[in-house]
Write a structure and sequence with these properties.
By secondary structure, the chain is an alpha/beta fold. It is built from twelve helices and nine strands. A hairpin with a 2-residue loop joins strand 8 (about 275-280) and strand 9.
């Protein structure tokens, strides 16, 4: 019987879609040839890593094995090798930068032109078809991941900025857009963002997220919150998030949205001194932005715009 629980991810490695586009320089035959080469490279790398992982003993992963991350993993003895249970897990090929990839190949991202959106769906489906074929051949759970890149979005971009200066219009911002997301600086209605990104959720069976940025606290408008969540559900989103600012005043302890004056104590907070800005990155609320976010993600945060209703 096919089941989805107990299929914890064993490993994933992400592909750099913008670089593949830069190499292709507008030639779709070259693009898909390079994409296939990279997919095969990642597959072989995942299998090489898996060959090492499966001979480890259960005692090396006590928390993971003891909590049933993989089917039957909680039945292992400490000295048992984990190979049999890891066969239940997934080996995932991820990707980032679909937006920049499409811009390089078509001149438009998938929120700007219908033909670019169709090409984006075609690219992601090509990758999903590849992982499905490899899963059938190997009898392992090869899957496609919409990578929530924390550090990779900056690292790939920095390397490409030096290697491909002719694409500085796509690398100068200092980061690549996560997975299939619409660029964070795009002024677009939240409903349209959901519509666009919903095309990719069924294709990325190793994981995905779509989020919208709102200005203000939606707990003050539960009707709008409910409509938004129900719309995302109607569109089939597997993981949906609503981002809104959360600030913390270290002096009085107030938590909420703090603009020029703290609602808790009334002090002037225009200089943001003593204010911890808590924001969501890759699915999680983090501590202070300046303390925990890398340079690329801080640049992305500055570029984020609130989505219109």
């Amino acid at each position: 019987i096919e089941i989805t629980y107990g299929r914890g991810n064993v490993s994933f490695t992400s592909t750099n879609l913008p670089r593949i586009a830069y190499k292709a320089n507008g030639d779709w035959d070259k693009f898909y040839a390079e994409l296939d080469r990279m997919l095969d490279l990642v597959r072989r790398q995942l299998l090489e890593r898996f060959a090492l992982q499966k001979h480890r003993k259960a005692k090396c992963f006590q928390m993971l094995m003891g909590n049933g991350v993989w089917i039957d993993s909680d039945n292992l003895n400490p000295e048992d090798e984990v190979g049999d249970v890891l066969n239940h897990g997934s080996l995932s090929i991820g990707f980032i930068g679909l937006s920049e990839c499409l811009k390089a190949m078509t001149g438009y991202d998938h929120s700007e032109a219908e033909h670019a959106l169709r090409k984006g769906i075609e690219i992601v489906k090509h990758m999903r078809d590849y992982t499905d074929r490899e899963a059938q051949k190997s009898k392992l759970n090869f899957t496609l991941l919409a990578t929530p890149a924390e550090g990779l979005c900056g690292r790939f971009c920095r390397i490409d900025a030096k290697k491909y200066p002719e694409y500085s219009d796509l690398t100068s911002k200092g980061y690549y857009t996560n997975s299939f997301h619409v660029p964070v600086s795009k002024h677009i209605p939240m409903w349209k963002k959901i519509d666009i990104e919903a095309n990719f959720h069924p294709l990325t069976n190793a994981g995905h997220i779509t989020y919208v940025e709102v200005d203000g606290d939606l707990t003050n408008n539960p009707e709008a919150f409910e409509r938004l969540v129900l719309y995302a559900k109607e569109k089939g989103l597997g993981y949906f998030a609503i981002n809104h600012p959360v600030d913390y005043d270290n002096e009085c302890g107030y938590s909420g949205i703090i603009n020029d004056v703290c609602p808790g104590c009334g002090r002037d907070t225009r200089n943001r001194e003593g204010i911890t800005a808590i924001r969501r990155v890759t699915g999680y609320l983090t501590g202070g932005v300046s303390d925990t976010w890398n340079n690329a993600k801080q640049k992305e945060l500055k570029d984020r715009v609130k989505h219109d209703r």
